[in-house]
Every structure is written in structure tokens, then in C-alpha cells.
Design goal:
Elements (H helix, E strand, L loop, with lengths): L1 H14 L22 H17 L7 E9 L2 E9 L2 H19 L6 E5 L2 E2 L5 H26 L17 E8 L13 H19 L9 E2 L11 E5 L12 H11 L7 E7 L7 E3 L3 E5 L8 H15 L10 E2 L2 E2 L38 E2 L8 H5 L10 H13 L33 H4 L3
Parallel strand pairs: 5-7, 5-8, 8-10
Antiparallel strand pairs: 1-2, 1-3, 3-4, 6-13, 9-10, 11-12
């Protein structure tokens, strides 16, 4: 059993591997072994590993281990038992369940059976399998590309009619999702305009506001229609991360060129995910296949709520807010009411708290107030300007002390343009050189 310990430790530190070739029960890995995920694994799960090793002490039993890895994230599973056939099936299933949660459904491979490491690097076989899978993906992509071309549809962000801050919308599908044509049949535009009308109502009746009706600045084409981009992902739904935005955001930024920091990119994602919506500063989504997203009014309400997160709201310098949401009786005052006559926005819109931004002053609202705040500068770059609230300073200093990103250590919604793969090394953003934590000094 000592050898089993060595096998397990070796996997943890050195054998978390890359690639997404075909696998299955009893299928050993053949791709090159790399340690690209070892650092993240060691950093986050030292205590868990120690506890896990204690479970593998019994003798007179079989042991199998499967694992999967994807550039900075990982999943694995091991089990022990007497029936080796059942053990393989149980462990593979458990590993794939973990993979769905942590590595976006990357395939799991058999690494060790009892005292034998069965993972063997076979360059020719790995290359052949990889090429076959790429060819299959290319065929599917070409088929989708032909089917997706429809009158009135746009596959790129169209030329802007002005250089102002604005919200840009995408109709987004997984590689194998059904196209319900919401971008071209008028349904998305109808829901978005409904939501913006609710914005005007809620801002005009806010008790502490200036009673000026405000709405979001939306991205329009030169023909006066909303600029909606059609996006087809390069992964099937089953391959997407449990929190789908973890795959969606880098795909949009790196492969679709949605990099304008004067825009918030918001997806009507025609897929399911853990929640009905998920957003941070820069990018957000509502998931139209989620059971909580039913009627058009519900879609509008969830979109409005998630759009608040793209603006850095709620932020914890406002009493009662933690991790972006109210925890007290003001819970339903974040534009998540489906009553069009009384959408409530509460004190996140207007307040008198010193050094704490209020949503009324966002650059994404029109009419825009003087000295408006840019959510990207505050919540991504940590360029606080006049908003040096003690709670903000405390969070930044805590992050600097830890030397890395931690989603629990924040003063509002997370920055969605984060470089997820470097979270364990600091606070890095897509398109920005260097560690943000090294650039701030409060």
C-alpha cells in the first residue's frame, strides 16, 4: 500500500494532465503528462489531500484512480473495493461528475490500478486521437456555420454609432444547442426594451434619487435596431463549466474580440446553468433554459438584476450587502421584481454614504450625471478615485497580503475580465499587463 500512496502523491504533484481526447471506463491516458495544474492543486487542497491519503490504508482491497485537468483547474476521483469492474465504473462516473464541476467536462482517464501506473504516454496514438477529434469538431462547426447563416443575423459587433459607454447584447448558444432565433425574430429586443422601460420607472420613483428617469445606454446599429451578436460556442453544452460564464467569458474575449472596456457584454444564453443568471463587471449572462427563467417578464427581471452586477452593484459599502446582494429585508430591491408597475431598486441607486458609489452615477446610464463612475476602473483596475471607502481599502489590502485572487474577498461583484488561469498568482486581467495588486497602494 506504500506504493499506492506514492502513486497518489505523484499524481497530485506531477501528473494532472492536459488534453481532451476520447476516454471512458478502463481507458488509460495516452497524452503527454504535464504539471500545469499542480500548483493550483497544492495551493488550494493541501489539507484535503492529507485527509484523502488516510482513507487508502486498508489492505486486501483494490484501488483505482481517474483524473482530468484543464489549465489551472483539475478534477480527480479514487475508490477502493473488492469488485474491480464495479470499482472502475463507480470511480470514472465520480471523476466525470467532478470534471463537470471543475474542468468543464474534460474527459477523465485511468491513471492507476492498485500498484500499477497504467497511464503511458504514446505520442502517435495521442496525436491520432487528437486529430480525429479536431476533424470531428471542424465538421460540426462547418455544419453549424452553414445553418446559422440567416437573414438579419450578425456574427460580429457592428460599427458603433457613438463612442459612449453602452451595453452590448449577444444571443449565445453552445455548439450543440438549438437555435430559437431570438436575435432575429424580435423576441430579444422586445425583452431588452421592456427591461429598460422598467429601469426608467424604478429610477424615477426612487425615494433618494433625483427623480430623473434613467435607463441603460444600449448598443444600437446605424439602422436604429439593437446591435445583437449571434455567438455559437466551440464546446457542446456538456463540456461547459458548471458555472458556464467561466467558459463563456474567455471565449468572447479571446476568440470573439469582445474586448472594449467601455462596453458591458451581456448574453441571452440559450442554455442551462446553475442559476438563472450570473454576472460581474464586464460580462454577464441570463440562462434561458434554467427553470427559474420562464416568462418574458421573468427574463427581463433577471436581466435587470444581473446588469446591476455589471455595474459593480451591490457593493459592500452599502449597509446590508454582502457578496453583491442584500442579506436583510431589502433583498427584493435589486430590480428582481416581475411587477412592471413597481420595479424596486432601493438604496443602491441613491444614498448619502461618503466614498461609496451609487448606481445613479454610473457612466452606463442616461441622462448621465456629472463625475460619473466607470465600474471597470473601480472594480477591475482598483482605481478608486474618490471612492476610497474603508471597506474597499480593507479588501484590497487583504488581497495584497494573500497575494492572489479570492472570490470571497471582494467589495462588490467580481471583475469578469479576470484572467481565471492566473488566480493563484495574483489579480490578473485579460488585456492588462501585470498583477493589479502590484499596481495599487492604498
Amino acid at each position: 500500500m506504500r506504493k499506492i500512496f506514492l502513486i497518489f502523491t505523484f499524481l497530485i504533484l506531477n501528473v494532472l494532465f492536459s488534453g481532451n481526447i476520447y476516454a471512458g471506463v478502463n481507458e488509460p491516458g495516452v497524452s503527454s503528462i504535464k504539471g500545469e495544474c499542480a500548483g493550483a492543486f497544492k495551493h488550494n487542497h493541501k489539507k484535503h489531500i492529507k485527509k484523502s491519503l488516510k482513507l487508502i490504508k486498508e489492505k486486501k482491497t483494490n484501488f483505482v484512480l481517474y483524473a482530468s485537468c484543464d489549465s489551472g483547474s483539475y478534477s480527480y476521483a479514487y475508490n477502493k473495493g473488492k469488485d474491480l469492474e464495479k470499482l472502475h465504473k463507480k470511480t470514472y462516473k465520480k471523476c466525470m461528475k467532478n470534471s463537470k464541476k471543475y474542468t468543464g467536462g474534460k474527459e477523465c482517464y485511468l491513471y492507476a490500478v492498485n500498484e500499477k501506473v497504467v497511464w503511458k504516454y504514446d505520442q502517435a496514438k495521442a496525436s491520432a486521437i487528437s486529430k480525429a477529434k479536431l476533424a470531428e469538431a471542424k465538421v460540426l462547426q462547418e455544419k453549424n456555420a452553414a445553418m446559422d447563416k440567416k437573414p438579419g443575423r450578425f456574427f460580429e459587433d457592428q460599427p458603433d454609432v457613438n463612442d459612449d459607454y453602452q451595453i452590448h447584447f449577444n444571443y449565445l448558444l453552445a455548439q450543440d444547442s438549438e437555435d430559437r432565433e431570438l436575435d432575429i425574430n424580435g423576441k430579444m429586443e422586445e425583452i431588452i426594451l421592456m427591461a429598460n422601460k422598467w429601469m426608467e420607472i424604478s429610477t424615477s420613483i426612487n425615494k433618494k434619487g433625483d427623480k430623473v428617469p434613467r435607463k441603460y445606454k444600449l448598443d444600437y446599429r446605424s439602422d436604429g435596431k439593437l446591435d445583437i451578436t449571434f455567438i455559437r460556442m466551440d464546446k457542446n453544452f456538456s463540456q461547459l463549466h458548471k458555472w458556464a460564464n467561466n467558459d463563456i467569458t474567455p471565449f468572447l474575449y479571446k476568440k470573439k474580440g469582445q474586448t472594449n472596456n467601455k462596453k458591458m457584454y451581456f448574453n441571452f444564453a440559450d442554455i442551462n446553468s446553475v442559476d438563472g443568471g450570473e454576472a460581474g463587471v464586464g460580462f454577464g449572462s441570463i440562462f434561458l433554459r434554467n427553470k427559474s427563467v420562464g416568462t418574458d417578464k421573468r427574463k427581463a427581471a433577471i436581466a435587470l438584476h444581473e446588469l446591476l452586477h455589471t455595474q459593480g452593484m451591490g457593493t459592500n459599502c452599502i449597509p446590508g450587502i454582502k457578496n453583491g446582494h442584500y442579506t436583510n429585508r431589502d433583498l427584493r430591491t435589486m430590480l428582481n421584481s416581475v411587477d412592471p408597475n413597481s420595479p424596486r431598486i432601493g438604496k443602491i441607486y441613491a444614498h448619502d454614504i461618503d466614498m461609496c458609489p451609487q448606481f445613479m452615477d454610473s457612466v452606463y446610464l442616461t441622462p448621465t450625471r456629472e463625475d460619473a463612475y466607470d465600474p471597470y476602473k473601480i472594480f477591475c483596475l482598483f482605481e478608486l478615485g474618490k471612492y476610497k471607502h474603508p471597506k474597499y481599502i480593507k479588501v484590497i489590502n487583504k488581497l495584497k497580503e494573500a497575494g492572489r485572487y479570492n472570490w470571497k474577498t471582494r467589495f462588490g461583484p467580481s471583475c469578469s475580465t479576470r484572467n481565471f488561469s492566473k488566480d493563484s498568482q495574483g489579480y490578473y486581467l485579460l488585456g492588462v499587463e501585470g498583477n493589479i495588486l502590484d499596481k495599487v497602494n492604498y
